[in-house]
Amino acid sequence: MQHLQDKVCVITGGAGMIGRAAVEIFRREGAKVAAVDIKHDDVDADLLLTADLTEPAQVEALYAAVSTSHRGATD
Known about the structure:
Blueprint: E1 8-12, H1 17-28, E2 32-37, E3 47-50, H2 56-69
Parallel strand pairs: 1-2, 2-3
């Protein structure tokens, strides 16, 4: 069953062990996933973004990228 069909999820720390597992689970449940981390190594997500979340400008850019990329998805 895909409980998150057409939902957009942002997984921070998406390149780490827990983040990768979360990306996999959310995608399996039907979500469109944006994986965010300072660096990426072979993460299987719909959108890979590099950002340092301690930097407000990078958080704003992240929000803009996800919003633009996933227009039309449901809330």
